[in-house]
Amino acid sequence: MLTIEGLTKVYPGGVTALQGVSLEISGGMFGLLGPNGSGKTTLMRILAGLLEPTDGRIMLDGEEVTGHPERVWPRLGYLPQYFGFYPELTGEEMLAHLLRLKGVGGPGMLRALGAELLERVNLGFAARRKVKTYSGGMRQRLGIAQAIAGNPALLIVDEPTAGLDPEERLRFYRLLAELAESRTVLLSTHIVEDVATLCPRFAVLRFGHLLATTTPAEARAGLEGTMYEGTVGRDALEALARTATVTQAHLVEGVNRVRLHLRDGAPPAGFVPAAPTLEDAYLLQMQGAAHLLPAGAA
Amino acid sequence: MTAARLRVIAAHEARTQLRSPLFWLLLVFLGFLTSAINPTAMLPSGSAAVSGVVPAVNSAHALAQSLTLTAFFGFPFLAALLAGLAVIRDDEAEVGDLLHSTALTPAEYVTGKVLGSSVMLGLAILAQVLMAMALHEGLLGGGATTRGAFAPWHYAGPALLLVAPGAWFVTATALAVGLRFRRPMAVYAVPTALFTLTLAFTWEWAPPGLAPWLDHLLMIVDPTGLRWLGRVAFAVDRGAAFYNTAPLPLDATLLAGRVVTVALPTLALLGALRHFRRSLSGAPGGARRAVRATVPVPVPVPPASVVLPPPLLRMTARAPGMIAAARVVAAAEVRHLLRSPAIYLYSLFLMSVVLEVGVSGTDPYGATVRLTAGTLAVRAIPVVTLLVCLFLLFTVVESLHREVTARFDPLLYTTPVPTGAILLGKATASAVVIGILTMACIVASAGLLALQDGGGPALGPLLLVYGVVLGPTFIVWTCFVGAVMALVRQRAAALGIGLAALVLTGVDLLGGSMTWVTNWPLWGALRWSDLGVFPLNGPALWLNRGLALAVAAGLGALTLVVFRRREPDPARRRARWHDGTVGRAALRLAPFALLPLLVGSLLGIEVRDGFQGGPARAAAEQYHAANTRPGQPWPRPSWSRWRRSSSSSPRGGAWRWRAPTCSGKAPGRRRAWCRSP
After folding, report:
1. What pLDDT shows up at residue A168?
2. CB pairs under 8 A between A and B
3. CA atoms within 13 A on the CB side of B313
């Protein structure tokens, strides 16, 4: 159980990245959703023990860890948003180095564990290549491999699918879902699809404030019967946006495919009721046009 | 080439250098050296010695010497670091791909960097000249100094002919090396090599029978111009009257030297630009490598399947202990060290310098001195300590900055490895560096002695001096650099502080205020005797070494306390004072301060009562003051007032020496081992 109480972070110059964020996260996958600059990475870095908060408390399994990040590290697997490796080492050398630092496995098992981890992230074919020759996606996968090494009790992954192709993203989703069965996985992302696919519960951050803590089903249920879908021309879209809440507008074969949120009244001509999605809920939350569940215990 | 793009790159580079602590440290260095170097101190004074004409501080000759010396000591390291890291900084900020995907051409990029660096170099030279002008023209007081009429050319001439080409040489060479190799260690090698070669070779090396053409060649290739000044402008003492009025004797050798000094690094820059252009276009190697690259290399392809392999092995994790984790960190550091050419090249360089020290020694009559292992090692101490400390400065800073450069820090710092293990691992790698460089010194010395004696050299004195005696110097320096890096957490600032510490130590030595307490590098302090183990230095040496190790332990503890894996919150700084965090840290450090204080106090008391101490210095000053008073009889210092005893046992290789330090003390109470460094 990870408990966060009134976490605040103020950077030099008065930039407030987090404003009194409180969360309770039990086992399983928990998503942290928010636009760029909402404070997700700051929260992740504080939880990983890399950044001291200005105020607030963090408890891990009932143990106060705010001032003692060294209590978190033995139980932590961390995939930061930005990271690198020693470029002159090969993938397997780099992973072996990290496995040793994490105290994973015995001396005889190290090679087998490293090889298996690399296979898990589909990097076995490049194990003996130097890390500096890896593509961005390959580095990300090596990062994932080191994060899951040692079966950590708490896995923090910050924007993990950035740089992964669709195939690898799918593979990673499955891996994370498997890992979340037996531990707490905290996933930070600005991609709604990541949360919709993986997280039974999630929180929404914006400008350092916790806006909501809910489940995808609850978020969608809140919009039941209020979403409509239709197609309009470009000029009509601008007029429509003035009279209704447009959540999404995609160009499909030259026309705008639009999703509307209407709490009351009849939809415009040509629009039909549509099943709400998590993306609708998130975008409406960001626009301030609707509210998910209030922030609270998850 | 577009002027607008060039201006953007140059302005950005100049702004970056202006914000760097290294640039401001350079100005401080130049100011300090300008005030510390007396323009007439090394000028042949001719009739001034017999109450004749006194040399003026602002003559062309005096200023040429002082400006050139100031530039030689001030510019090499800081100017090289400022310019040499210009391209590497961009690499580390990962802006290279962005920059080179624009219309910016490689030539514009490199020329912009050169222009930006040159502008800052020009500002530094201008500041140096203005400071010299303010000091030597009496704008800052100092009316007692003899000075001639103000002549701007006396400042501008040496600045343009001697200072600027020399500073350009080091700046452009460092930039070229940084551009070509993209490694900080390669950049650090530039000023180190230039400084050492100038000091040990080009400046004054003139064995009997040196061919004139070789002498002229050395003048031409000496970028500092110091050799030309010494061999041409001040070759013979022409008297102060001449130096006060005569212009600098500009000759073809000087002009050729200046042309070479400007042209060589320019060619190096052009070569580096060519390589840079090729690397951007994807052909980093030469023609042969390009041909080789046409042979198709099979690249492994990842499997297309998204089917997951079997579930994970039952991994277990247990936080590694201090020693085990330190071993892992040390292994990675040492592997990195041994894969880099820097340690091998530097070892060779150090060996060549030790050989040069060995072969260049002559007695007061110019005869070649027959060396023993001890005399050679002791003679090499100043240059060995300087070079090893410089290399340690660079390697320790890079080692502690390595994770940040590679962006590996968030991964390393969230592992359960104790912080002490990270530091211990890196310290172990530094110990390996010390070991390799010490071995290089021993091998070079042993080889030289074997050539001289035709048999196997005595390794004992070499191990004693390079290992036992100098070991604490290297250890305390490593701990100092580590503590500085942990405190400032910035490469440029740490390098600047480290260089400043070396300069201040040199100033302490040259200023005559260095004692056994402050002489941590043992510069000029040791006297070797083949009759025993430092019988003339005695317990002072071992107390000094003990002090170095005690300070090293204190600095190590400080590093452990201040080294931050977690970025501290600035808003909680005051809270840390109030909630006792700082107090508790100070308490934890207190025991580590006790031992250095104790050993330092013991040594300080001995020094105070020895001839480096206040009473002895006061007595010496009193003696000289009385003797310079006309008509005042004063007894000559007499050994008759000193009681000393010595005994030697050649068979046992022992020599014991006891004597008081100065008159006025009860004989035999103090030993005379507090010798001047």
Report:
1. 83
2. 145
3. 19
Q: Is the pLDDT of residue A90 over 80?
A: yes
Q: How far apart are CA A113 and CA B467, in angstroms?
A: 42
pLDDT tens sequence across B254-307: 999 999 999 999 999 999 999 999 988 776 554 444 445 445 555 555 555 444
Q: Output b/e per residue, B26-36; b: 16+ Cβ within 10 A.
A: bbbbbbbbbee
* φ/ψ of residue B614, rounded to 5: -55, -50
* Chain B neighbors of A101, CB-CB under 8 A: 320, 325, 328-329, 412, 415-417
Alpha-carbon span A163 to A173, nearest angstrom? 14
Q: Is pLDDT of A169 > 70?
A: yes
Tell me which DSSP letter residue A90 carries.
Answer: B
Edge-to-edge strands, sheet with A2-10: A16-25, A2-10, A55-60, A63-64
Q: Is the pLDDT of residue B50 over 60?
A: no
Are A59 and A89 spatial neighbours (Cβ–Cβ below 8 Å)?
Answer: no
pLDDT (tens digit per residue) in A225-280: 889 999 888 778 888 888 888 888 888 877 888 998 888 878 888 889 999 989 88
The C-alpha R_g of chain A, in whole angstroms, comes to 21
CA-wise closest residue to A54 among A14, A99, A7: A7
Q: Concatenated DSSP letters for B473-506?
A: HHHHHHHHHHHHHHHH--HHHHHHHHHHHHHHHH
Task: Count the neighbouring beta carbons within 10 Å of the beta carbon of residue B446.
Answer: 17
Half-sphere exposure (Cβ direction) of B240: Cα atoms closer than 13 Å:
21
What ipTM was reported for this prediction?
A: 0.89
State how far the alpha carbon of A97 is from the alpha carbons of A3, A75, B410, in Å.
32, 18, 15
Domain regions of chain A by residue span: 2-215, 225-275
Instruction: State residue B288's pLDDT score.
Output: 47
The C-alpha atoms of residue A45 and residue A83 are separated, in whole angstroms, by 12
The answer to whether B415 contacts chain A (CB < 8 Å) is: yes
- Is there a contact between B427 and B482 (Cβ–Cβ < 8 Å)? yes
Q: Which two tokens stand for residue B492?
A: 């440029």
By C-alpha distance, which of A273, A190, A208 is closest to A8?
A208
DSSP B668: T
CA A42 to chain centre: 13
Burial of B257 (0-12, 13-18, 19+ CB in 10 A): buried
Read off the pLDDT of residues B52-85 as tens digits, 9 standing for 90 and up.
677 888 889 999 999 999 999 999 999 999 999 9
Please say whether the beta carbons of A47 and A59 come within 8 A: no
Tokens of B591: 């025991």
- Measure CA of the first residue to CA of the last residue in chain A; give whole Å: 11
CATH number of A2-215: 3.40.50.300
Contacts of A10 in chain B (CB under 8 A): 569, 571
> Which residues of chain A make contact with B320, given a CB cutoff of 8 A?
100-103
B565 and A50 in contact by Cβ < 8 A? yes
In whole angstroms, what is the distance from residue A44 CA to residue A213 CA? 17
Instruction: Return d(Cα B377, Cα B442) in angstroms, integer.
Output: 8
Q: Searching chain B, which residue's CA lies closest to the CA of residue A54?
A: B569
3-state secondary structure of A201: strand
Spell out the domain ranges in chain B.
Answer: 3-284, 322-568+580-616
**C-beta separation of B225 from B33 below 8 A:** no
Residue B466 to residues B334, B352, B388, B618, B676, Cα–Cα distance (Å) = 22, 16, 11, 36, 21
Which positions in chain B touch A52 (Cβ < 8 Å)?
566-569, 572
CB–CB of A1/A61 below 8 Å?
A: yes
Measured in angstroms, the CA of A203 and the nearest CA of chain B are apart by 24
